[in-house]
């Protein structure tokens, strides 16, 4: 988890799906890292949640941290097709900034998401999960590297499965042990 927090400091935005936001209520900050001297701040990434139907909770930790001044304003990306003005107002009042993009077959278009983020000055994105979001980004072939942490936990069908075709462009780079976990890195060959 500490390595994940280091990786967060290296990106402009950390992106998750609404499944992860609702199940885990994550904070997407760098709180596990050692404090810097004399109150200096680490680079805090922008939290971004893909939420086609605006199911994000106004009382979640991301919004609480923002209201209390300890986190950046979360951005929610939602679908033009199922946009609900009431839910939008509720989330905006709670502190979220909502962006509307196109959908393809019921999922937000990865190209539209990246275009929206780039327009806002975001140059690097860490896609943290969950399984559906990771699969969408792999299928869209937009990732430059793939970092897989293998923890000694048996999760069965809950693990991330993926299309072999979607990962063809990756080449193996390295394997490192981090405590009980093993971190395997692949980079884009093209
Ligand atoms: N161990 C780890 O490192 C991590 C584990 N997780 C786990 O993953 C689980 C959640 O995973 P999932 O259920 O797969 O949900 P998810 O977090 O991947 O979100 C999927 C939802 O996002 C929305 N969505 C909008 N645009 C989409 C697009 N282009 N592609 C796919 N979905 C899109 C849809 O409503 C979809 O149901 C959580 O229980 C969490 O614990 C999540 C992050 C990291
Ligand atoms: N244990 C663990 N190790 C990793 O390397 C991970 N990427 C995760 N994943 C997710 O981290 C989220 C929690 O984030 P916060 O610490 O609250 O910011 C949560 O979504 C985990 O599933 N976990």
Strand content: 25-35%
Strand order, largest beta sheet? 4-3-2-1-7
What is the first-to-last residue Cα distance? 29 Å
Provide the helix percentage: 25-40%
CATH architecture of the domain at 13-142: 3-Layer(aba) Sandwich
| CATH homology-level superfamily of the domain at 13-142 | Dihydrofolate Reductase, subunit A
* Form type: globular
Report the uncertain regions. none
EC number: 1.1.1.302
Family: Belongs to the HTP reductase family.
Keywords: NADP, Oxidoreductase, Riboflavin biosynthesis
Domain Bacterial bifunctional deaminase-reductase C-terminal: 4-183
Tell me what you see in this structure.
This protein is globular. The model has no long low-confidence stretch (mean pLDDT 93). The protein contains six helices and ten strands. The chain is α/β, with parallel strands linked by helices and 190 residues long. The strands form three sheets. A five-stranded parallel β-sheet has the order 4-3-2-1-7, sandwiched between helices. A three-stranded antiparallel β-sheet has the order 8-10-9, with no helix packed on it. The protein has a domain at 13-142: Dihydrofolate Reductase, subunit A (3-Layer(aba) Sandwich). It has helices spanning 2-9, 18-24, 61-67, 85-94, 110-119, 131-139, and strands at 13-17, 46-50, 75-79, 97-101, 103-104, 107-108, 125-129, 145-150, 170-178, 181-188. The ligand Nc1nc(O)c(N)c(N[C@@H]2O[C@H](COP(=O)(O)O)[C@@H](O)[C@H]2O)n1 binds at residues 1, 4, 20, 24, 26-29, 128-129, 149. The ligand Nc1nc(O)c(N)c(N[C@@H]2O[C@H](COP(=O)(O)O)[C@@H](O)[C@H]2O)n1 binds next to helix 2 and strand 7. Pathway: Cofactor biosynthesis; riboflavin biosynthesis. Keywords: NADP, Oxidoreductase, Riboflavin biosynthesis. Catalyzes an early step in riboflavin biosynthesis, the NADPH-dependent reduction of the ribose side chain of 2,5-diamino-6-ribosylamino-4(3H)-pyrimidinone 5'-phosphate, yielding 2,5-diamino-6-ribitylamino-4(3H)-pyrimidinone 5'-phosphate. One of its GO terms (molecular function) is 5-amino-6-(5-phosphoribosylamino)uracil reductase activity. Its EC number is 1.1.1.302.
């Amino acid at each position: 988890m500490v390595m994940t927090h280091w990786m967060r400091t290296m990106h402009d935005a950390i992106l998750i799906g609404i499944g992860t936001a609702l199940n885990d209520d994550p904070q997407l900050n760098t709180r596990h890292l050692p404090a810097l001297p004399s109150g200096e701040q680490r680079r805090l990434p922008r939290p971004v949640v893909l939420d086609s139907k605006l199911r994000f909770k106004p009382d979640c930790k991301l919004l609480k941290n923002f209201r209390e001044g300890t986190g950046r304003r979360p951005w929610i990306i939602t679908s033009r097709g199922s946009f609900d003005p009431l839910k939008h107002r509720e989330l905006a009042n709670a502190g979220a900034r909502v962006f509307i993009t196109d959908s393809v077959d019921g999922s937000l278009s990865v190209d539209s998401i990246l275009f929206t983020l780039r327009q806002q000055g975001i140059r690097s994105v860490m896609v943290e999960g969950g399984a559906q979001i990771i699969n969408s980004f792999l299928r869209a072939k937009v990732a430059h590297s793939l970092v897989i942490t293998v923890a000694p936990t048996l999760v069965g069908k809950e693990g991330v499965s993926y299309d072999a075709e979607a990962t063809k462009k990756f080449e193996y780079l390295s394997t490192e042990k981090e405590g009980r976990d093993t971190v395997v890195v692949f980079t884009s060959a093209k």
